[in-house]
Amino acid sequence: MANELAADIRQHMLQRMLNIRYCEERIQELFLENVIRGTTHLCIGQEGVSVAMASVVDAQRGDTVTCTYRGHGHALALGMSLKSMMAEMMGKEAGCCKGKGGSMHLTDMDIGLIGTFAVVGAGLPVTNGAALTAQIKKTGAVSISIFGDGTPNIGAWHEAVNLAAVWKLPSVFLCENNLYGEYSPYANTAPVPNVADRASAYGIPGVMVDGQDPEAVAAVMREAVDRARSGSGPTLIEAKTYRYKGHSRTDTAPYRPAGELEKWLARDPINILADRMKQAGQLTESQFKDMHTSAQEAVQEATTWALEQPYPPVEAVYEDIWVN
Predict the structure, then answer these.
(1) Residues 99, 312: contact at Cβ < 8 Å?
(2) Which of 14-18, 34-38, 295-299 has the lowest mean pLDDT?
(3) pLDDT per residue over 263-280, tens digit each?
């Protein structure tokens, strides 16, 4: 396989995907128990894109990432701790945003996560801002913007991609095409068959990749990041993936055609990578089960810890408003 990664990287990606999967499942349970309030948007089924993206990010160098409200997996893939994640989900002071952001507003500059955005497309201009900073300062840093298949239908997307192309900004635009913009099928809302087709209008590369194959996504991400660092400008990547759950909260996705979910479940990104590792002699079934157990235990430990943490005091609403 041309895109094959080293065994230790595969191991790391597989464990991260399992951590994300079990964390997301626990978040859904906690929401239904009214422990997590507001709304939640789960990325179950899309973990391969998250870990592949994170594999090319160098936060120490200054690389940055923006993404959508479906961003729990990206945050964990980049290195956010399960405890920080769970505490933020519950609105606790120990969370990554001191309990003030919640499910849709996660930020951790130590791992390069500028933020997850509740407003569709809002992260793209911010990505360009970070990329322009890197370009002016000549740091060699790259900024990645992750968005869904509905985002290319709004003005901010076109403005951001156009500007990045004109100025050759070190930006990478990564679309997670999970077939649905909220409840609407992609085919009903776009005039072109693929999001990547739009790249030609801006004179930049448009690449489609199997989002269920973490190694394939990592390969195209690496190429795009290298291109951006070299000063050649942005790339538009479309990862074909699928969310197993509905859009948010209690959406049971009745709009899906019969058999569609089962088709995608058969191409689970976790199993695709695990099976490949087994075939290469890098993973046994027993080891795979142990990795599942490790992820479940880590998520439960983080949940128990977060439940015991205090909520922020009322006075905290006046903090973190201004930067001196």
Answers:
(1) yes
(2) 34-38
(3) 999 999 999 999 999 999
The bridge status of strand 143-148 relative to strand 180-181 is unpaired
The amino acid sitting at 144 is I
What backbone torsions phi and psi does residue 12 show, to the nearest 5 degrees? -60, -45
What would you report as the CA-atom Rg of the chain, rounded to the nearest whole angstrom? 19
The answer for residues whose C-beta is within 8 angstroms of residue 4's C-beta and 6 or more apart is 215
Domain ranges of the chain: 7-306
CATH superfamily label, 7-306: Thiamin diphosphate (ThDP)-binding fold, Pyr/PP domains (3.40.50.970)
DSSP strand E in the chain: where?
64-68, 113-117, 143-148, 171-177, 180-181, 184-185, 206-210, 235-240
The token duo for 25 is 């499942």
Tokens 């058969």: give the residue.
Answer: 266
Contact status, residue 10 vs residue 277, Cβ threshold 8 Å:
yes
Nearest to 42 by CA among 6, 70, 82: 70
User: What per-residue confidence (pLDDT) applies to 322?
Assistant: 84
Q: To which H or E segment does residue 24 belong?
A: helix 7-32
- Please give the DSSP secondary-structure letter assigned to residue 3: T
pLDDT band at 251 (very low <50, low <70, confident <90, very high): confident
What share of the chain in percent tops pLDDT 90? 93
What is the C-alpha to C-alpha distance for residues 256 and 265, in angstroms, rounded to an integer? Answer: 14
Q: What one-character DSSP code corresponds to residue 254?
A: T
> Cα separation of 220 and 208, whole Å?
9
> Which candidate, 100, 104, 126, 103, places its Cα nearest to that of 117?
104
